[in-house]
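Figure S4 source data
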Amino acid sequence: LLKSLLKVWVTMEYYIQIYQEIWERRKFMTFIVYKIRNADKRSKTLKVCGPECVPGHH
C-alpha cells in the first residue's frame, strides 16, 4: 500500500511540475504578445496623426 501511494505521489509531483512550467511559459508568451500588439497600435497611431496623438509621448 505504501509503495503504491508513493508511486502515485511521485507521478503527481511530476505532472504538477510540468503544469507549472507550461503556465510560466504561457504567462511569458502572453506578455510578449501584449507588448507586440501595444507597440503595433502605437506605431499605427504615430503614422496616422503624429507623435502628439500618442498618450505619454512628449
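Figure S5 source data
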Amino acid sequence: MRLLFQAAKDGKPWLNGKQLLHDGGSQSYTLSNLFKRKPVWRKLIHSDGRGYYRMQESIRRTIQADMIGECAIY
C-alpha cells in the first residue's frame, strides 16, 4: 500500500504488479495470490486487468486528508 500511495502522490498511480511484488519483498507471483485470504484488498487496490494496479482513488484521498490533518495538529 505504501508503494501505491507514493506512486499516486508522484502523479504516476499505475504500477506493474510484478514490480510491486518485487519491490515490496514478496515471493508471491500475483497480488491476488498475496491477498487471497484478505478479499478486502480489492476495495483498496484497483486493477486495470492487464497487470497494473493503483490504490483506489477514494482510499488515496482519505489517507492524504488524514496526513494533512496530522500535519496541521503539529
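The chain has five helices and three strands. The chain has a mean pLDDT of 84.
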